[in-house]
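Hi R.,

Here's the input for the adenosine-5'-triphosphate complex you asked about:
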Amino acid sequence: MSRIWNFIKSWTVEMGSPPLFFQWSSKALPWLAIISIIVFSIGMVWGIFYSPTDYKQGDVYRIIYIHVPSAILGQSILMFMAICGFITVVWRVKISGMLIKSAASIGASFTLIALITGSIWGKPTWGTWWVWDARLTSTLILFFIYTAIIGLHSSLDDKTKADRAISILSLVGIAIIPIIKKSVDWWYTLHQPSTFTLSSAPSMAPDMYQPLLVCVLGFYLIFAFLLTMNLRAEIVFREKNKTWVSKQYLNRQKNDK
Amino acid sequence: MKSDIYNWFFLILKRDLLIAFRRSSTYITPLIFFLIVVSFFPLALSPDQDFLRSLAPGVIWIAALLSSLLAVETIFSEDFKDGTLDEFFVTNEPSFVLVFAKVLCHWLITGLPILLASAISSIILYLPASSFLPMICSLILGTFFMSLLGAMGAALSLGRSAILSSIIVLPFSIPTLLMGTAVVSSAINNQDYSGFLLIMGAMLAIGIPGLCLLTVEAILLNYE
Amino acid sequence: MKSDIYNWFFLILKRDLLIAFRRSSTYITPLIFFLIVVSFFPLALSPDQDFLRSLAPGVIWIAALLSSLLAVETIFSEDFKDGTLDEFFVTNEPSFVLVFAKVLCHWLITGLPILLASAISSIILYLPASSFLPMICSLILGTFFMSLLGAMGAALSLGRSAILSSIIVLPFSIPTLLMGTAVVSSAINNQDYSGFLLIMGAMLAIGIPGLCLLTVEAILLNYE
Amino acid sequence: MLPKLKVKNLSCSRADNLLFHDLNFEVVAGKNIEIIGSNGSGKTTLLRILLGLINIGEGKLEWLDNEENYNHYRSIDCFYQGHSLGIKNLLSAHENLSLSSYSFGASEEKIAYALDRVGIKNHLSFTSELSVGQKKRISIARWLLKDFGIYFIDEPFSALDDQATSLIIEIIEELNAKGASFVITGHRASDVISNQIFLDHEV
Amino acid sequence: MLPKLKVKNLSCSRADNLLFHDLNFEVVAGKNIEIIGSNGSGKTTLLRILLGLINIGEGKLEWLDNEENYNHYRSIDCFYQGHSLGIKNLLSAHENLSLSSYSFGASEEKIAYALDRVGIKNHLSFTSELSVGQKKRISIARWLLKDFGIYFIDEPFSALDDQATSLIIEIIEELNAKGASFVITGHRASDVISNQIFLDHEV
Ligand code: HEM
Ligand SMILES: Nc1ncnc2c1ncn2[C@@H]1O[C@H](COP(=O)(O)OP(=O)(O)OP(=O)(O)O)[C@@H](O)[C@H]1O
Ligand SMILES: Nc1ncnc2c1ncn2[C@@H]1O[C@H](COP(=O)(O)OP(=O)(O)OP(=O)(O)O)[C@@H](O)[C@H]1O
Ligand SMILES: [Mg+2]
Ligand SMILES: [Mg+2]
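And here is the predicted structure with adenosine-5'-triphosphate in place:
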């Protein structure tokens, strides 16, 4: 058991050393870009042009292909950040701290997209932009947690410090999310019966569902791609004075010639 | 001499805006704080649409006051600690220009985000679109007045007794709160709200010179 | 060794309580703030008894959360600035005892005034007497949890503005808000509220060790 | 030449302690004054009284104005540097100079020259990463931004290494040559400044 | 006698600057070490690394424990005094001693003696009215509260008058005689302490 533990530790530490990461990520990046763009476009095109029109909502429902994947991503990214946060707090792996920072803004954006697309969708279907429903509310709170993390990071001038600070916050965040989901559920049912529970919506037809799955996968890949890009930018920014960074760029310039 | 004062004013404004923009939390936090406080009310009270709409003016105004007050509280403290406030007072330039520049800068970096946040809140609290414009107008006047008041409170509590600040600032903010709420609720009920706006404008007109001068005095108190 | 930790704990508690009592603003401000927030509702909305009674649980809880949060924000900053926090960390005594002692002290000087203020408010807002006890119980658990959370926020944002630590803490305080209002409104409607109290207790039980340890981490961060 | 500032019978007490009593001195162009006293003897207080930052002293301050009259009102440009240095962490070294109240009206070349003179390269990054001493150098750079009449500097020599100390002395002499005067404080007599005022009552 | 602390190959860099590299020294009972360096050379950082307040150095610290083994974990009581003095303005001089973390377990007589020793009468009022130097004296009084193994003092001699300086030297010698060691920092070599470590890279 402890050997596996040690292996994970040494592996993360090693692969996470910024120069090494930079090396393997620059090889992986083009592939990641190609694959994620292909999967994402397949999902989008399939969903938006080739899936059947909903008999009740018409074509508005197609917003689902953005809404649901981004809502899912919004939650997964916080989970991812909490894992990185754990690694940062316990082992002080530098790069996992940068990972949280790079993931935070992506997570916030996806959550915001989910909120906005949801609102846009809500206007025609529910007749209002916003309802204080359990799921919506907890998504809003999720967004607040992201902004708290981002705000904290920006307020600290020392960036390695800031990384550790937001690791702590994302650890607390992940612990509180299930409580919020649960309590918000109770809260709603306490006052009045839920009018718009999403879970009791009619189960989807498979030819609507399949493109959705592809979209979700595409969003995950896009996240991986954006994350790598963000992280590389972050590394270059943080280590701009280190020799390996200037070397990297010198090499790049030589290759360009 | 006159153009000198303008340059002086812009020097301070530029300096403070630059520092504020270097730390994005200065303008993001009031916005988020506002939204969180607003979302507390549906959570703690009831998510019912009609109920929330009737509550909305009060809720938005409470959130605006709180976030502007909280944000203003550090307006002088950093300059005081690192000695730059001393330097501004040592020059022969008029000090109330300094105070006004700092208040204006503060309003730009917190008041504007609060306006944005209140626009979002008016949607999630189901405010009718017709009340949007009066709400924004009253908020502009009100948050600026709060920045002025808060600056005075912050000056009084520089280094010591925070009690003075909250006891002075909170009661004085109540008229603004009541006026502001009155503007928005009148607008919702299609009543005339211009009277309230006028009163708020008048308060601001008196407040700008009056409170700036008092704030100068309050800052100088800390040097004795 | 064990009695040593107790003595250590009481040393910190005594020191902090003494300092707090020398500066009356520490315990008066939360009380005044609470009362101002609460009294705003009858003023701005409607003085109708039934309306206010329906509002009361939420309003009291929102006021409690906000005032406890505002007060907690300076819990470590002074010790950090004047170097005493360094000294506490240099000794070989366990640091989470320090954090817990400071949180407890903070709760004593702000949580208790809040309880007093909420007792007064329950009269202003026409809460039935039967809901008084559950309200106090839930507030005790809730404000203590808020002090813990706030301490973490304060440690993370040491030296930064108050509003930053509030936006860190507020999202996490929502479960407390929901549970707390649920307790009071169940009590008003003569429903069983023990379940909610239990959950609040459980959150506190997990929060005390967990948040104290994370707070220690957060404080140490500021030294790097 | 007329003295820029005449201090007459200045006394001050704080919390029932007499800090100083019947001080009389004059600040003359090109000459410096060193105020020496142990901790708590009132050096900082004296400087702040002279500048009008606090208003608790008794006695007379007379400032020279452009028409060679003496006024209670100060029209001379003064530079004050207290225990805190007046350096903003979030501004770069250059911005700290160009946006400080003392640089008001200073040209870009002056700023570049001043930074160069104290040996601070224009760090593009924020000054938050600099040490106390490095910040002190930046604050010294500001002495050079304009021609101030009198410099009031609180303990310029504390927390400085030898190199920086001799830098300060050099700069002081240079500014003296241009007619500026320094009023500085310290705990023991430095060898550089001849005119010394001792604030020595018991601690 | 075994050294209380062995520092082996300690290096540290901050924001890409190497502050110090391969430091090796030992703290021996009754002997002092002075760390000398210009501003920003990393003196404060070194003290904090030694105490474990920050965790950014590379190298080894070995502390003597009761069984005469060396551990990474520090079991020796240490006294740390940074640039800020650890004095509470709202407490009186006496309370500042009796309620400080260093007084934990110190007797009432020790406190009275310590205050007396540094020449501070037990001001019943708060310390907020005292000057920086007077506060420094109070903080020095705390050295005497218990028998600490090692005292880490950041710039004890800055901002002090001659009287206080000699007081400090006296107290250090007194504590040395009891077996305590001092690790202090400064900008230039003081005459009192023989063992000196220079942190001198360029500023
Ligand atoms: C601002 C408003 C909205 C927000 C914040 C929101 C948020 C969410 C979230 C968090 C999920 C869960 C994703 C997951 O983990 O599976 C979700 C799923 C979903 N939402 Fe929304 N939503 C909003 C509006 C809407 C509207 C207006 C509709 C359509 C009437 C809608 C339809 C759906 C559907 C069909 C799912 C997938 C349900 C499932 O298969 O589990 N949403 N939304
Ligand atoms: N705000 C105040 N209220 C009352 N007394 C004060 C105040 N500020 C300073 N004092 C007292 O005035 C005296 C002089 O303080 P001051 O700061 O001028 O001393 P200093 O000579 O600058 O000392 P140091 O060398 O330590 O900087 C001190 O004894 C101090 O106790
Ligand atoms: N939090 C930090 N982040 C990055 N760099 C830092 C930090 N704190 C200090 N430094 C840098 O580390 C170096 C050493 O700082 P330190 O405070 O240890 O210097 P010092 O020798 O104590 O100087 P002084 O004599 O001015 O007190 C400085 O160059 C400073 O820029
Ligand atoms: Mg002084
Ligand atoms: Mg130092």
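One thing worth noting: Residues D 43-44, 83, 154; E 132 surround magnesium ion (ligand 4) (CB under 6 Å).

Cheers,
M.
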